[in-house]
Amino acid sequence: MSLQLRHSNGVYSVKRTTRPAFLAQNASRVKTKACAKSALKPVKSECTAFAPATVANLGPGFDWLGCAVEGEGDTVVAKVVPDKKGIFIESIEGDGGRLSLDPAKNCIGVAATETLKLIGEVDCGISLKLHKGLPLGSGMGSSAASAAAAAWAVNGLFGSPVSKELLINAGLESEASVSGYHADNIGPSLLGGFILIKKCKRGSPVELMSLPFSKDNLYFVLVNPKFEAPTAKMRAALKPTVPMASLVNNCQQGGALVAGILTGNVPLIGEALDSDVVVEPARAPLIPGMMLVKAAAKAAGAYGCTISGAGPTAVAIVDDVKVGERVSRAMCDAFRAGGLEVNTAKIVRLNTDGAKFV
Amino acid sequence: MSLQLRHSNGVYSVKRTTRPAFLAQNASRVKTKACAKSALKPVKSECTAFAPATVANLGPGFDWLGCAVEGEGDTVVAKVVPDKKGIFIESIEGDGGRLSLDPAKNCIGVAATETLKLIGEVDCGISLKLHKGLPLGSGMGSSAASAAAAAWAVNGLFGSPVSKELLINAGLESEASVSGYHADNIGPSLLGGFILIKKCKRGSPVELMSLPFSKDNLYFVLVNPKFEAPTAKMRAALKPTVPMASLVNNCQQGGALVAGILTGNVPLIGEALDSDVVVEPARAPLIPGMMLVKAAAKAAGAYGCTISGAGPTAVAIVDDVKVGERVSRAMCDAFRAGGLEVNTAKIVRLNTDGAKFV
């Protein structure tokens, strides 16, 4: 089982089909004696990949819009294990011992296994080392960054026969194992920049498009408090139905958000991201101080502030580093006033590279 | 009572405030003897304006996205009536005698009255003649085109002291009197092109932005069947709540629609417009044959097809006139198969001018 890429007018459609024709052109192959089947040989013995943090949901962009940000991320070292088959997790650093070394129960294991399905048969096993740069359950796409780094590192061992767009399928399976079948973290962590998920339903091709942002004056203020906001709990906070008026509001603000990105309008991005009336009001009360943080960010000069991913990290939008510093202090103070300590507070730019070899 | 225009980064915010400072610069004034108050003098005795048809709702763009299209529209002739005050409707053609000549009960009357409120005191009365080029209740923004033409013609009598963006307020009051407080028809009929309504709530400034479309290969196939689809009935067909999954779908498709417009991607515009899962499924069953029309349009090569405005007109998107002709025939046949006669079938481009003097 492998894939087909339809790339029409800027929209990528990624679909599993029969035989990966592109592999023949992109990678060396070893034919086995038994039949005409071929197993792919690695082109290097070790490959290290980094994948960035992401900010998903983005207010009205819930479940369909995310972006990659500079700064921290996760790193995976993939090593060839000759004369073996399968995926092995050698070590994990930076997780406080919380993640499983069982490849079936860890997002790098799932992503690597799914990446091998996309590549086709290979003639070796692969061991993985994960260094987590992102806190777990922070709302900054920690699991997606691990999965993206693993997929890109494993792919790199074989000369990168699979495109980043196609690797989203591997990442999606990994994401599904931890937080649900959503591409708004894994898409930007692999590809970089703002990614609009046009369609993402299991059994259908994933459709996504990159939304180019042309200015250099967009900054994200990310404040991560010491608080657990498990994705499952945050998802359960959402009501199964929403009022029609909320639909109209979120659609129009989602449209304005896309317009803000494509026209390089930072104030518009901030205001639109700030205007979700469905998800944020349901989730913010579960994060102590979040509404105070939001108000403080705007009072300090941010164009808008909302929950990053499923939280607890808060994200504010500014177009000036100095304003960002003031906003960051105000947000930290507000979290503390709400009773939470602050893990990290950062002012970061958009990451436009996504996963990369290091 | 008058207005203030905030124009920040491509977003117009139109708000009623105290005194129209801009008037002093743009128009001649007559000071009365009684006090320092001044009444504006007309600069011409007659002014004729045309305003184009519009396609609002646009699938997931329900209540927040519309565009103006070339071809038919409504025309209003405004004439100065010396030594009188107020708005008078002299005649209406093309409505089959269905519209009221009472200015308080007719959208041109309401729009003209509201336009005068924006201009300030004037020293004459105004009579209006309306020529309707658009069928009533067609879903092509018939009432908005009348209101836009009336507002622009009245404004023109006084040297156009009020900008088109500000005149949206006059149009909104007119629209509210016939179909609700929605700017997705009046906005594009006045301004032309695609207009995103970012905020439109009575008592708050209207916020909107123009979404430039840079290509010339976008065609709308508009097929208007002989059928009444009153806006009130079509609005009543909508449920008060929608499933969360439908919110996500419509937000992502609305975002894709904006991305399609701003990147000049006609297939993407068509597919996104075709993908509403909230409004179209509730309203289409009220228009005989609509689902057949939609299927026929796509089978004939359209990128997507949905209900224009509140219907009954169906709109399909193509990027080639020849395909449009085939799509048009298929849509007409499908309406007839559904039991409806066809009034008009047209293939039109985007109108980028909006209301204009003729």
TrEMBL record, chains A, B:
It catalyses: L-homoserine + ATP = O-phospho-L-homoserine + ADP + H(+). The keyword Nucleotide-binding applies. GO terms for biological process: threonine biosynthetic process. The keyword Kinase applies. It holds the Pfam family GHMP_kinases_C. It is an enzyme of class 2 (transferase). GO terms for molecular function: ATP binding; homoserine kinase activity. Residues 113-193 form the GHMP kinase N-terminal domain. Keywords: Amino-acid biosynthesis, ATP-binding, Kinase, Nucleotide-binding, Threonine biosynthesis, Transferase. Transmembrane segments: none annotated. Its EC number is 2.7.1.39. Residues 259-336 form the GHMP kinase C-terminal domain. Belongs to the GHMP kinase family. Homoserine kinase subfamily. This is Homoserine kinase. It comes from Polytomella parva. The lineage of its organism: Eukaryota, Viridiplantae, Chlorophyta, core chlorophytes, Chlorophyceae.
